[in-house]
Amino acid sequence: EDNSLSQKKKITVEDLFSEDFKIHDPEAKWITDTEFIYRDRNGTVILRNVETNNSTILIENKKIVSLKAIRYEVSPDREYALFAFDVEPVYQHSYTAHYVLCKIPHGDPQNLYPPEVSNAKLQYAGWGPKGQQLIFIFENNIYYCAHVGKQAIRVVSTGKEGVIFNGLSDWLYEEEVLKTHIAHWWSPDGTRLAYATINASRVPIMEIPVYAGKPAYPTVKTYHYPKAGMENPTISLHVIGLNGPTHDLEMTPPDDQRMRDYYITMVKWATSTKVAVNWLNRAQNVSILTLCDATTGVCTKKHEDESEGWLHRQNEEPIFSKDGRKFFFVRAIPQGGRGKFYHITMSSSQPNSSSDNLQAITSGDWDVTKILAYDEKRHKIYFHSTEDMPRRRHLYSASTNGNFNRRCLSCDLIENCTYFSASFSRNLEYFLLTCEGPRVPMVTVHNTTDAQKIFELEVNENVQMTVNDRQMPKVEYKEIKIDDYKLPMQILKPAAFSDTAHYPLLLVVDGTPGSQIVTERFEVTWESVMVSSHNAIVLKFDGRGSGFQGTKLLHEVKRKLGVLEEKDQLEAVRTMLKEHYIDKLRVGVFGKDYGGYLSTYMLPAGEDNQVFACGAALSPLTDFELYASAFSERYLGFHGIDNKAYEITKLSHRVRLLKEQTFLIIHATGDEKIHFQHTADLITHLIREKANYSLQIYPDESHYFNNAALEQHLYNSIINFFVACFQVQDKLPIAQLKEEEDDD
Predict the structure, then answer these.
(1) Closest by CA position to 122, among listed 164, 87, 163, 79
(2) Do 199 and 233 touch, CB atoms closer than 8 A?
(3) Rounded CA gap, 703 and 694, in Å?
(4) Which among 52, 242, 423, 616 is placed 20 to 30 Å from 160, CA to CA?
């Protein structure tokens, strides 16, 4: 063993929660051509000018600490800051909070309340695009303030708590459709506000028992949650004018038979009077992109997409030219044998014609993962893509005229960095570049012309020092061939790996359709602890149904979730079992959410010749009929019509195959996303089949474990379970003893 290695510490669960491993994200945000605002390591909010290199302190950290603020936002004119404190999470993104406004730099806090209500917690508060414009949402109604100190006026008042949401998502939209709690959008000049009204009144109610607390009788938390095949919330999009009378106008949905039941998945202003809207049918296989006139409510169809599988990536915003005549959007375009890949299409409207001219700017067997900016002067579009490799994200530019020349700006730019995200200054002269891996994350500022680094904003040297002092897992990548696909796996080995030793193998699965678990991002998780402290080898693999490798691979799992994923993951495990350093008797599998569905599905694999000794599932999805409509219907069709697809994917069919495997199920009883009902239903079947299982619950905890102490407990539980499973057994199985006698 390498001497220097033996002096390095192993990664522990405590490390995961310590300052030493805490990556600082400066949350840098461009506000002009040359300036951005960020928060430094000490918590101070600073305005930095790239050209002059001047820094101005906007908010001292002690101010934020004294207010106990968790979030801050600076007004567009930089006169005021808005602070949120007493923040209480609602679902994944949403929260309620108290808000105060302070004049920058040292003003006294002024409370932000609706008129006539004191001490109110708000569901949202945020600045508009100009001056000190402000809106906030209380009891699902929207209030507008033209500037600080002016009385707030209620501009939308149809809200009904828990039922009719204005400017905010309900549970379904937040978790599965818009994927954010924000459902309002300012026009660029600040004169209008577009907002969604989501009506959940016909959606069935879910009740979650609350056990803890004083009363002798548990209470219940109720909210509208549409399960597969049930009534969905309805949505409409409105625009109100904020200067003068607040005229409220609804944008007209497409008049199309296929759109009787629809979702709105994206809203983006093109100009100050035109707003782009993406409408998606409930079956999620037809979408219509329209451009709506905010002054009349009339929407014109700009593009339509159809899919034989389902439409993926429906939230992405197009990028418009200043006059709104030209726009760029990402859509799936056929690229040969591997199906469609996501590429940039340019749509230009002709002055005297109703039809638009469409041109593909990029092409190839790779995906554009995000369009970032369009430079009209230089005829360039900037974007991230997987052109280098599916597990990487580089920054590219492409010409929008001539031969669409493409250039990689981030390739070989920063040592040991292959996974990036970028943002551009207003005039696109500069960009902020966040390196997310493989090295410890860092943020740098660059010149767009030659991508030259101007300065480093954050290099996380404390984490780098910790990493240098730890036995970090060695990361390797391999490809295996399944059918006509070459599929990626990631292997994490102990730092002191020796191929003469025997190691247990832990397969970690995610597998949500379109997701990707094999990437070059930097991360230190409980899996790192398994490798570093407990000498396990961790395997991750992206099989059929995963993202960024073409729509043919993605759509293979349609209507048969679990079947192909199991085949592919097992193929990856069998590839590893051929390595003589893997102990075939000590193989485990872990997954959470959809991954928990897969880990449970796979646990009985191999039947008499069982592959896994043990498996664990965290908040597993066990029956798609019990899960959210938008998710289940996307992959399995409409429950009530496609019942067969729902029937065959139920986990209850798999548990009768369980033998001696040890099985741990962990679920929070207050899980508002994958209800505890999933686990209860699974256990009923486990008992019926006399199967072996252990259950660990977290009373009243939500799906997202918003509490570090509980999270630490959770990781310890998972690790202890696998450590116990991976302990070398004293007795060798009969078959193996016999083989050894034959060898003598």
Answers:
(1) 87
(2) yes
(3) 20
(4) 242
CATH number at residue 536: 3.40.50.1820
What per-residue string of b and e applies to 248-283 under the rule 16 or more CB within 10 Å gives b?
Answer: ebebbbbeeeebeebbbbbbbbbbebbbbbbbbbbb
Total structural domains in the chain?
Answer: 1
With respect to residue 48, please indicate whether it lies within any of the assigned structural domains: no
Residue 2 in this model has a pLDDT that exceeds 60: no
Assigned domain for 463 exists: no
pLDDT digits (tens, 9 = 90+) for 33-84: 999 999 999 999 999 999 999 999 998 898 888 889 889 999 999 999 999 9
Tokens of 433: 């570049």
Q: Is residue 314 part of a domain?
A: no
Rounded average pLDDT over 142-159: 92
Domain span at residue 606 reads 472-740
User: pLDDT tens digit string along 659-699?
Assistant: 788 999 999 999 999 999 999 999 999 999 888 899 999 99
CA distance 409 to 417: 12
The region that residue 469 occupies, defined by phi over 0 for left and psi between -120 and 50 for alpha, beta otherwise, is alpha
Average of per-residue pLDDT across 183-187: 97
Query: What would the two tokens of residue 420 be?
Result: 């990036």
Q: Rounded distance, CA 208 to CA 675, Å?
A: 8
Of 84, 124, 21, nearest to 522 (Cα)? 21
Scored b (16 or more CB within 10 A) or e, 195-208 reads: bbbbbbeebeebeb
Distance CA 167, CA 242 (A): 15
Q: Is 476 within the bounds of a domain?
A: yes
